[in-house]
Amino acid sequence: MIKVENLTKQFGAKAALDNVSFTIGGGSVFGLVGSNGAGKSTFLRTLAGIYFPDGGKVLVDGKAPFENAQVKSEICFIPDYPYFFRQATLADMAKFYAGIYPKWDLKRFEDLCKLFPVEKKERISRFSKGMQRQAALICAFSAHPKYLLMDEIFDGLDPVMRQLLKKLVSEEVSESGMTVIIASHNLRELEDLCDHVGLFHKGGILFEKDIDALRLGVSKVQAAFRPMPEKSAFEPMEILQWQTRGSLLNLVVRGNREEVMKKLNSMNPLFAEALPLTLEEVFISEMEVAGYDINNILS
Amino acid sequence: MTSTTSSLNGSRQFSQIYLWSLRKNIGMAALHALLLFLVNPLILLISLSGQKSSMELDSHLTAAEKAERFSEYYSSFVDHMAPFLAMFVVLVFCAVLCVNLFSYLQNKRSVDLLHALPVRRESMLLGRWFAGITVLFVPVLLDCLSMWIISAAYGIPAAASMQTLFLQMLWVLLMGAAAFTFCVFMMLCTGTTLDAVLSALGINGGYPLLIICVYTVAGLLLPGFNGEDVFQHLGILTAFAPFAAGIFATIDGQSVWLALWWLAVTLLLLAGSILLYRRRRSETAEDNFAIPLPKIAVRFLLTAAGGLGFGLILNTSSMSGFFFGVLFGSFATHVVVEAVYSRGFRYMKKSMMWYGIFVVMFIACYGVLCTGLFGYDTRVPNASEVESVSVIPYYSGDHSTQIVDDHWNQIAELTPTIRDSENIKTVVNLQQNIIQKYRSRYPYRLKNHMGGGLTFSYKLKNGKVMTRVYQSYSDDMDLNEMVQPFYKELSGMREYVETSDLIFYVQPDSMESIDVYTAQAQGKTHVLDAEKAQQLQEAVKQDLYDKEVNGNDLSDQKAATDRYLSISVDYRENFVPEGEKLKALLGGYQGRINIQNANYVWNDDSSATWNLLAQWGWL
């Protein structure tokens, strides 16, 4: 389990993380979303023991990761731009990791090298961006970490590799109880993979929720009225987003779908229907309520 | 094949990093070994081969003489050239290896990888440091071994040659370790490799430059302070500049204290590096500095050296020129250094605080020096506290004072020394009189030297040594005029005269011949037999005791007159020292010695030497 308590990280005068507190349960896939500069990568680096917190603490199974080799041996971090030693091949990196990570699994490494289309004897510097990410993934999965941290991992991966990654993550989570934390702007991919999400903004966390609960708690409906009722007529529904175009009304409302449809139908619309809600729309709605400039935040 | 170990312990972390780093630098080690082989064993091999060929052509040499010549050549090579060349290569590799092993600290991506690994920072640093040291040391040891094999192949006795070789290479290793650790410390302090290189260069160049400038200014300003012997204090001159110290150590100035100093510095730098690395923020990679200490140090050193250096250049024109030079030179250097470090002028205004600190320190130091450095200028020991005093005139004439061994390395130097308590009182009074003359221009002003100096070196009964050197200045302080009456007193002291010239120490048979010069005849050489040598030695001694005729100690002005006699005494080459007095001066040295030629000038035809040579018909 990862416990974050009042975590603060400063870069000069700017707070990249400002008093952040939340918990990530074991064996889950946690998505970190947020605008550029929200603090996602800083959080991952602090969690990986690269950065030392300026305030508060981050605990992995009750222990701080910074300068703690025991904790770090259970963590693998794949940054947004993975680094490999100069002139190194994937085989070289495997040899290095094998000496460093106590749970390094050579068989797993060989299997993954067959699964991903990369050549382990070729210099990694000659790999494309996506192939370098695949190389990093192979090394990370072969180390059998208890916690896998990935920053913008979908960048550069083709759709097939994305699916393969999702499959591998799902297997590891279900089979070995691995906890996976993924920071990404790609909400569509996260939606498929994560069971929890946390929304970072300006160094703080706006919320952290179970993704299903998040979806169930917000509904999107479309209805037609003639004449269009006043907004106040929809009370006590908690409207997150209100959009009208002639007699057509689009609403994002807090509450489950059945309750919302029941209330809407009681107002005699020309028609009313529930629409599928994406993670992105949930976030946009939530953040509009919080008064944030959506266009600027979800880049 | 999954391991079940929970994590690596410290020593496993260290060994994994060490072995990995070593493996990655095997190529560098091979290159290092190759370069060392090219500059040392190969050159030695070629040179010895050449020596052998030339000696085979010389049929006069016996086998023993050939072996001795080989031995001499080898000793000379391993004592001077080999360590210098090895040190140069090692220092270059210190910098290269440091960049190779520690530049990861200055790249955000590599920091992400390496600082996320389950390896403590101490293990990471020490593993890489030891890998660097291995790559530096092993080729040097191989170099040493190969030179020993060459010496054995040429039949050079191992005992003496190995000791020199081993000691010299120990210096190379020590200074290599110091320079490498210094570079590592710089890499930890800085955020980019360029800043690390600039800082290392800045400290290694700036510190010795500043010391030279400070010594020079103090010597020009403070009576009694000798600013010209800065190069005699290589320990101070290079105390914080390991690259400069490394080069100097192979040329001159090796001592146990210096070795202990650099050992301590190396260990302190290593301990400091570990502490620093523990606290170093990973996010400072690619910033200018993780810890701004080198920037502050380099900016100050270069600002001060630039200011004082430019001030000294302009001082030749006027006193105000010095202050203008200091102000302009320091400001310009500060601006340049700051602009280079900050890659622009963004922080220039903020940096002026540090320039202000330099200005305040300069004013304070100048003020202290021109008011006599807390009594340094007037400090004279009580005659009762003095065991002996050496008075070395700024012009020693052409007396023979230096003794060298059969390789022409100096082994002893005679300095005029006074031990008699009454004579010591006279010398103390003499110095006090000189001080009063200098004191007339208190507070002191910066002037230009005329060169030379009169040195008083007191050996006190408590074991301490106090030395003062007085100079002539270009304006109103002519030491020559000032000292002349005192010098007459000195040359009347028998013990002063007897310790001024080696003629009082040698046996007559060590004198081989003399060249006689007069106003009428130039350079006639006369070989001395035993009797003549003894007579000549007695005559010269008598003339040196007679202060009325031994005026050649002041200058050679009299020699310019029409009536003069000059002789040059040639000593035998490589003679065995005899006589208790000479042996005591040599302090236990057992080998053969050489003494430089001695020149004596007279313009008084009543002198004993003049009469003796006239009697022999040599004039």
Folded structure, characterized:
The complex is a heterodimer of chains A (299) and B (619). By secondary structure, chain A is an alpha/beta fold. Chain A is elongated, with a radius of gyration of 22 Å. Helix content of chain A is 34%, strand content 29%. Chain A folds into two domains: 2-213, P-loop containing nucleotide triphosphate hydrolases (Rossmann fold); 217-297, 2-Layer Sandwich (Alpha-Beta Plaits). Chain B is an alpha+beta fold and 619 residues long. Among the domains of chain B are: 10-192 and 233-282, no CATH class; 503-616, no CATH class. Chain B contains 20 helices and eleven strands. Chain B has helices at residues 10-24, 26-39, 41-57, 63-102, 108-115, 121-153, 158-189, 193-221, 234-237, 242-251, 256-279, 293-315, 319-342, 348-370, 421-439, 479-491, 494-498, 530-545, 580-586, 608-616; strands at 386-392, 402-405, 410-413, 417-418, 454-460, 465-470, 511-518, 524-527, 565-571, 593-595, 598-602. Chains A and B meet through α2, β5, α3 and α4 of A and α1 and α5 of B.
